[in-house]
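Homework help thread (please don't just give me the answer)

Our assignment gives two proteins as sequence + C-alpha cell strings and asks us to describe the second one. The first is just a warm-up. Here they are:
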Amino acid sequence: MTEFIILATLISVIVVALLVWSSVKQQGVRRNNDARAHCYRVHEQTLLELAADHEAGLIDEPTYREARYEAENRLVADIRNIDERPVMNPAYRWIIPVAFTLPLAAAGLYLLVGNLAGSDPAANFVRTGNVGQFVNAVEQLEEKVRQNPDDLRSQLMLARSYRAMGRYEESVIAFGRAWPLIKDDATEISIFAGVLAIYRGSFEGKPDELIEQALALNANDHDALTLAGGSAFQKGHYAEALRHWKKLQALLDKGSEEQQWVAEQIEEAQWRLDNPGQERSPQRDPHEGMSADMEPQAPMGHASML
C-alpha cells in the first residue's frame, strides 16, 4: 500500500510539473508566433506600398528593387531576433529540473512537442532557421499533397510554407485549394488576401473581396483590419484607412510596440489626408524603428496572409 501511495504521488508530481511547464512554454511560443506573424504582415504591407509607389512613378526601378531587397533583409533579421529570444520566462525555469526528473517524462514531452512543431514546415522553419530542413520538409509536403490532393490541412501548410519562401503564386494556389478549410476563419482568409495582394501588386478585386468577407466573419479581426486599412491607404482613401486603423489601435494593448506601429500608420494617413497632393521631404519610412518583439495583433499576414 505504501509503495502504491509513493508511486501515485510521484506520478502526480510529474504530471502537474509537465502540465505547468507546457502551459508556460506555450505562452512563450504563442508570443513569439504572434511576433513573427506581425513581422510578416509589416513586410507584406511594405511590399505593397513599394509596388504602389513604383507603379505611380514615385520611385524608379533600381530604387524599387533596392527597397525590396532591404525589406527582405529586414524581415530575415527580425525573424532571427525573435528566434533568439527565450521561449520561457527565466522566472519559471525551476520547472525544467522537475519536469525532466525521469527520462521517460522527458522523452514523452520531447515527442509531443516535436511532433506538433514538426507538422508544419513554415512554423518549424521560423523556430529553427534551418533552411535545408525547411526545403526538405516542403518537398515532402508537396509529395504528400500530390498523392492526396484532398488533404486540406496539408494544402494549408503548403500555402503557408510557400508564403514564407516568397513563392506567392504557388501560395495563392494552395490557399485556394484549402478554401473549404479556411472559408469560415477570418484570420486565414485575411492571410490569403494579403498573399494574393502581394502576388497581384494590388488589393483591387479579389483581395478586397476576401478582406470584406473576413470582416463580415469577425469585424474585430486584427489581420483583416490591418489589410483593410492598407487597401484604403493604397487607393488614397485615407479617411477610410484611418477608420480601420483607429479601430485596430483600440483593440491592441495600450503602449505595446504593435500599437505604436499602428499609431505611426495612423499619423502617416492623417498627414496625407490633411495635405492632399503633397509628399513629405524627406519621406519617412512608415516601418522605421519597427521591433521584432512586436506582439499582435494584424495578416498582412495575421498573417496571420499572412
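The one we have to describe:
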Amino acid sequence: MSLPEFVHNLLQAVFHEHHEQVTAICDDQGVVQQVWGAQDFLSEPLRAGASVSLSLPEFTTHDLREPLRLPVVSGREGYFYSLDYKSVHGGGVLLVRNQTDHVAELQQKQQMAHDLALMFRAQSRLMSHLQASHERLAETERHLSETNRLKSQFMANLAHELKTPLTAILGYAEMMGASSEPDREHASKIERSARQLMTLLENLLDQNLLNIATVELHDVPTALTNVMEDIKTIFMPIASRGQLAFHVRHGDLPVVTADDVRLRQILVNLVGNALKFTKQGSVRVEANYGDNLFQVDVIDTGPGIPMREQQRIFQPYQRLNPQSPGAGLGLAIVKQLVETMSGELSVRSVEGEGSTFMLRLPLLQVTSKTTETTRQGLIGIAEDDPDIRDLIAVVLADLGYCVEAFGDGLELCEWASNAKPDMVITDLNLPRMAGIELIMALRQLGHIFPIVVLSASSKSEDRRRAREAGCSLFLKKPVHMLHLVNEVDRLLESHS
C-alpha cells in the first residue's frame, strides 16, 4: 500500500515533529511502508520496511484484517501510549498516541481518589468516635442531672425535716419569752441558738443551690436591735474561747421590713468569717440606720487580704488559704444574698493589718401596731406535727380566737363543711388529704374565707401550686408567731 507523493509530503509536514502521536501505513503483511511523527515514547521505533510487531508486540499474534484498539499500553520506561489500528484494502493504518501525560493525570486523580477514600474512612472512624463520645457525654450529663436532682430533693427533704422542729422550738421560745425572769432570759437564749441553727441550715441549702437569685425573700417586721444583740450573744462565747476582744456597737435601731432569716444569715457569715481568720486582737461590729439604709461594718485585726485577691474572695469556691476549713462558699453566698436584697457589700483591707467588710442594705422602717383588744373569729388548723399544731392553737387561742386543730386535711375539710370557719391554716404535707387537695376541695365547696399555707418547703413550685389552688398567703417555716398573728389579723380584717 502506497500513497500519492503529494499526500506523503503533506503527512510528512504535519507529523514529522509531532511528539504526541505516530502515524504509520502498513501493508497486509504488517510491514511498515511509511511512518510520521516522533517516536521517543516507544520502546522500539517504527521503521519503514520493518514488521510492525518488532516495535509493537501487541501485533505479534494479531490478525491484521481485524481492527485493534488499546487505550493504554506501556512503552519506554515511564511512557504510555494508545494504539488504534484499522485495516484497509491492501494494508492498514496505524495511529499511536502518546498518553504519558494523560496516564500521569489519571494516576494523579486515582491517587487523589485513593487519598480521599482514606480520608473518608478516617473521617468515618472519627465521626464514629465522636458519636460514641457524644453518647457517653450525654449519658454522663443525664447521670449528673439525675444525681443533682436527687441531691436537691434530698436537701429539700432535709430542710423540711429540720425546719419543722425548729418552728416548734422558736414558737415556744417566743411564748416563754413573755413570762417572767429567769424564764425570759432562758427562752431568749434558746431562741437565739435556734435562729443560729436556722442560719446554718439556710447556708447548707444555699451551698447546694448556689443560685440565690431564685430564692424568694420573705419580708417581715424585723427589730434590728434584736438582730444585733443576737449576733453579740451568738459570737461572744466564740470570741472568748479564741481570746479575742469582741464588740457589737449600735445606737437605737428601728423595726424594719426585711427577710429576718436572710439578714441574720448575712451577718452570721460576715462575723463568723472575721472571728475565724483573726488569731489575735479584736473584731468589732458597728451598725447604724439612717435614710432607710442599714449600715454594718465588720472590722477585724486579722491577716488582711492582698489587693489582687479582694474581688476573688466573693467568687464561689475561692479560698485564700487552701488549708482553711470550708468550701469557699460563705462570702459568695453573702454577696449574692446582698445583691438579691438590692444592697452592696465591699471590703477594705491592708495586708498584715486587718479588714473591714462594709454592708449596706436599703430597708424600710415600719411602725409596729399593737392592740390589746380581744380577737374574734373561728380558725381551723391542719398540721400533722403535734408540737406545731398545739403551738399555733395556743397562740391564737390566747388572743381570743376560737381554734379547732386537726392532724390531717380530710378531718379539717369535713369539719369546715359544717362549722363555717373564718380562716384555715394548713401545712402542705398532710396525711389522707394533702394541703393542695384540701385548698382545692374547700374552694370547690364554695368557701371564700382566707386560707394560709404554713410550710417548710423552699420550692417555688409548691408556692405556685398553692396559689393556683386558691391559698391567700404562703408562709415558710419557721415563722415568727408575731408575724403569723399580724398576718391573721390583716387577712381577717380585710375579709370582714
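TA reply:
I won't write it for you, but here's a hint about the kind of observation we're looking for: DSSP finds twelve helices and 17 strands in the chain.
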